[in-house]
Structure formats: structure tokens, C-alpha cells
């Protein structure tokens, strides 16, 4: 943790970094920051809920440390002054501010030198910035990775185009010559804003909204039950680089390790993964935006900001729609805030629900089409598990009597459809619906499935080391997660990852990706019944006693079964009900299964013995156990087999499954070479045995003389 210092003690070196930044002046077009592009990392102590509410509403994606009563944020000097004017005492985190300024300066130098040129015609375009920023792929690189994976793993990968971005839709409207991406920017942006972007780095045609889908399609399509799905969206806020990279790297890990890692094999065989780039237009501007302030999509028509800054120049780059406020379930609900009606606002929600082509594309893919006769959504990436009564039997899930949304009907705990996750930066938190307080829901943000969603979040937070707090101390409405749950009943989350919008590749590789890999690895292992399995213990480190075993022999299997893997946090607002507190149970049993998952027909579990675990905590010694068992390979054909282990706690709840490979070799050929049948000794065998015993007895007699 960096040590905060007071503004008056800002070092000369940091001051020099501000003064010497080689970057274009953003004036008022840099998203309402008339400050030469300066970015400060600050820590703000707060004394009460009023101060917390004021600060979190003012600041963009702050991280709230509830225990220390501190807010961590990245701000412009104007926002810092606003905090001071409100009686708060923000402190500059000097080391982190210097790091951010170095990040911005080096990016600006990369732009100026051509280091991030998107070399047209080259097989693999360069990344957002070479060197320290090379870990973040451009939109083109991400889509090229899609194609490469589909070519390498044709049985496990599919690619689907979901729809157009705003720029793409505008290009299609032209009846004569097709305007380029840059042509459309010149139509709306003033020269001062155009000067910020290198025309050569922009594509001629806007990239569409695309999804990469990963799964063992042949195996899954042959089963009667649809596979559970993990649906990710990344980059809905354009300047958030880490989320898209985390999603892509997890997809790549699944495929690269399918043959060598038993858990990767289990996940791809059992689940289906969908990763979607949500805001490709905005991302193209963010790739050149040295201040990383580009958030919304590029809608310069119905969402054009014409307000002028202090220098009289229109704040055109503040135009656009916040796609994560544009979703129709809960759009402009009229609750206690959650989106902005001001076109220039960072959370501007659009002129109508799902007004933006990006929103329409992702929403249609996620939920499919409405079947009025069946009163449900069908054909989407996530199945409809939220039952609709006659009163709410319509695609908007609104009451035919009052016109209000259905806030109180839950999905069954048996929901097997999977989970939706919107990947964001940078508050290190796992959030879930509802995002807004409503009178119809008794000013409560809890959903009918709140207990299940809270436990999922608390388990996930343990693995990625984030807080599980439901809200970030402020309301949100018209979001992806509220729509996924509101229409389909699917557990839905916003995962705020990392510590900064300006995250160095070293931090990303060392911290942000591994943390979230762990979380998604766990979530993949409970996806079969995601509202139920997190109530049971986690199972990890499944190890076979031998790398291979001859058919007919026995082999040991061990695993760690742990029910003490939760991370609890408060809700984020003291005015709403806190999430339920998780209960830690002792481990009651564990079983190993060969080639069939515990819930599959014909699965037979092998009981495992429980013993003390070195990983157990002293306050809950029996909540973590080492499980040991023995697999009899009799009857197993030669080849690779799967061993699955699942533990059950004292509450009777089975939990996450983990896997290991079991390689079986054939028994020696002479083991079956007898003609007596059934393994019994025939008369010839008995005679030979008698003669042999007699010869041995005679030999012993001769040696005794």
C-alpha cells in the first residue's frame, strides 16, 4: 500500500512530472477536465455516511475501504477542490500519482513516436502501447485472437457477430460513398478534439460487436440438458483496459490447457463460455486517449454534448451514452438516483431504453427472443429461469395492472443456466443486483435470490481477494447485471477489478489477472447449479497417487475440502439491508467419482476418509479437511479417465467439484491366457501344479542330505 502524503508536501519530482508531460492539451474536450490532463491518486477519509455518499457520487469508480473509512480514487484537480469545498480532507498518494503520470507520459510518447501504430496489412497489429503497455490488446488484436483460436480449436470454438456499433450503424446508412470511422468523427468533433487522435490508428470500418464461444459442442449438444453458460462482457466502459484482457486470457487458458489440466477439461466439456467486446467504438478512442477518460460509446447525434468548457470550446468528447445505464430493466426508474439525464454526464442513460445498437446487440444475444405462448425468453446465451405469472407475461416483465417492473419474483434454486458477469475496472469489488432502491421493493436492493447471489459473491471474493458488497456506495440503474437477472433470473455480477485505470502491465500480470483467474476458476466449478453449490465446500488440489496405473490395480486419490472460503463485506450503503452473513460448517464427507460428475446418471461415489488438514484455521479446525480415497481400476479400459471429487458439509450441502486425470494402462496380455474360463484351475493346470510341487519337494530333500 502506498503511503499518502498531504498536498502541500507534493515532491519536486512529482511537480516536475506535471510540468514536463509531453502530451497534447485536452482543454475542455478532455471530459470536463480543464487542467492540462493532470490525474491525481488520492485517499479521502470520511467521517459519516453523508460524506461517503457525496464523495462516491462525485468520483468515478472509487474504492471504499470500509474498515479504515477511506475512499481511494483517481481524480482531476477540480474534483479534489470540490472535495475540499465540501469540508473533506483528500490526501495525495504521491507514489501512485507519480506512477500514473509516468504511465500517461509514456503513452503520449508512444503515440508521438508512432510506437502504437496499427500497421495496416500486417498479420498482427501492435498493442495499445509497446513496452510497458503491451499486455493490453487492441480491438483488432482481440478479434484476431478470436480467429486464431477458432482455427486452432475448431471443435471447441465458435465466433458470432452480434450486431453493429454506433459508428458501424452510421456507416451503413450512407446511400452513396461509405464514410470511414474518421470521416464520421470529423462530422461531429471540433478541430481541437480531432487533433487528439491519429487518423492512421483508426480503422476504416468500425468493428462490430462479437462474441467468442468456447465449449465441447459435440458432447454438449448430445446431452438432454443444456450446458450452463458463463457470459462475460468486457470494455463496456471504453477506458477500462484490464477487463477485456482478463476475459481473453481466461478463454486462452481454457483452450491451451484442455489436454493437460483436468479442471480445464472438465470446464470446457461441462460449461459454455461467451466473451463479448461490448464497446469497440469507444475502445478505439480510448486506445489513444492518454488520460484514459473515454467511458461512453460514440453517439455524437442523439447524445451530443454541446456544453462549452471554461475556454468556450464545446465538450464534444463528453458525448455518448453510458451503455451500462442504457439497459431497459430499471432504466430511469425514478428511484434515488442511478443514472444521468444530462447528455454531458458520465452516466448519461440515452434517450430511450436500449437506444444504442451496442445495447441491443448484447441484450438480444443474452436473452434471445420472446415467446408469448410460452411466456418466456428463448434461444439466448442464458436461459430464462424467472417465472412470469399472467400479470407479468410480457417481454418487459411489467405488471399488466400497475405497469411496474417485477422486482420480487425469483428464479428457482435449481436454475442451471449459468451466470452473467460484466467486467470493469477498478474498485476491487463484486457487485450484484439490485443496483437501485425502489419504493416497489420497499427501498431494499435485495432480490428474491439475494441469499444465493450473496453467497456466490462471497465465495468469488475469497478467490479474487475483492470485497463482496452489492453496491459501490451509490445507486446504479439500467445496468447489464440488473437486466440479466431481471429478465432471466440468472445470477449477475459486476466485477470491478484492479486498482487503477492506468494499470501497468506488471501489476496486471502479477495481481489483477491471477486474482480474477482464481475467481473464475472457482465459479466454473459450481456453474452446474450456481444458486446451490456455493453453499457447499470448495474442493481443491485433487491428486492421484500415481501418474499411471495398470488396469485392475488400485490407486490413491487425495484432495482438500474446505468450507471456510468466504469473504464477507457490508452492502456499501448503511441505508440498505446488509447481505446475509455466511455460515461456515464442518466437513461431513467427500466422494470421488470416475468418468461421471456427481449429478450425472449412473455416477457412483467412492467414500473418502477425512483427516486433519494443514490448511485448516484454528478457529474452524473441522471446516477444512484432507480427503483420502482409493480408486479400483478393475474394468477400466486403457486410456485417460477423469476423477472428480466433491465434498459435503455438515449442513448437507455438496459443493464445488475439482478433477484430476487418471491414466490407465492395459494389464499384461498373459494374464488372460488360460483355457479354464472364469479364472479357475483346470485339470491340466492342477496336474502341472502337483508335478511342480513334487519336484520342489524332491529338490529340497536332496539339498538336506
Characterise the protein shown here:
The chain has 17 helices and 23 strands. It has 705 residues and is α+β, with helices and mostly antiparallel strands. It has four domains: 7-113, Alpha-Beta Plaits (2-Layer Sandwich); 131-527, Aminopeptidase (3-Layer(aba) Sandwich); 536-670, Immunoglobulin-like, CATH 2.60.40.650; 674-704. The chain has an eight-stranded mixed sheet with strand order 5-6-8-7-11-14-12-13, sandwiched between helices. It has a five-stranded mixed sheet with strand order 16-23-22-18-19. The model is unreliable at 1-36, 114-127 and 673-705 (pLDDT under 50).
Q: Topology of this structure?
A:
Layout: H1 12-19, E1 40-45, H2 49-58, E2 63-65, E3 70-75, H3 77-85, E4 91-92, H4 94-113, H5 139-152, E5 157-163, H6 166-173, H7 181-188, H8 191-194, E6 209-214, H9 217-221, E7 229-234, H10 241-256, H11 262-270, E8 272-277, H12 280-286, H13 357-367, E9 368-371, E10 376-379, E11 418-425, E12 429-431, H14 450-464, E13 467-470, H15 480-488, E14 492-497, H16 505-524, E15 538-544, E16 548-550, E17 554-562, E18 587-594, E19 606-607, E20 609-612, E21 624-632, E22 639-649, E23 654-665, H17 683-704
Parallel strand pairs: 7-8, 7-11, 11-14, 12-13, 16-23
Antiparallel strand pairs: 1-3, 1-4, 2-3, 5-6, 6-8, 9-10, 12-14, 15-17, 17-21, 18-19, 18-22, 20-21, 22-23
Helix pairs in contact: 1-4, 10-16, 14-16
Say which CATH homologous superfamily of the largest domain is assigned: Zn peptidases
CATH class of the largest domain: Alpha Beta
Helix count equals: 17
What sort of overall outline do the alpha carbons produce when their principal axes are compared?
globular
What is the count of β-strands?
A: 23
Q: From the 3D coordinates, which CATH architecture of the largest domain would you assign?
A: 3-Layer(aba) Sandwich
User: Which spans of ≥5 residues are poorly predicted at pLDDT below 50?
Assistant: 1-36, 114-127, 673-705
Strands side by side in the biggest sheet: 5-6-8-7-11-14-12-13
Distance between the termini: 87 Å
Radius of gyration: 30 Å
Write down the overall mean pLDDT.
85
Specify the structural class. alpha+beta
Q: Helix amount, in percent?
A: 25-40%
Q: Mind summarizing the main beta sheet?
A: 8 strands, mixed
Percent of sequence in beta strands = 15-25%
CATH topology of the largest domain: Aminopeptidase
Total individual domains: 4
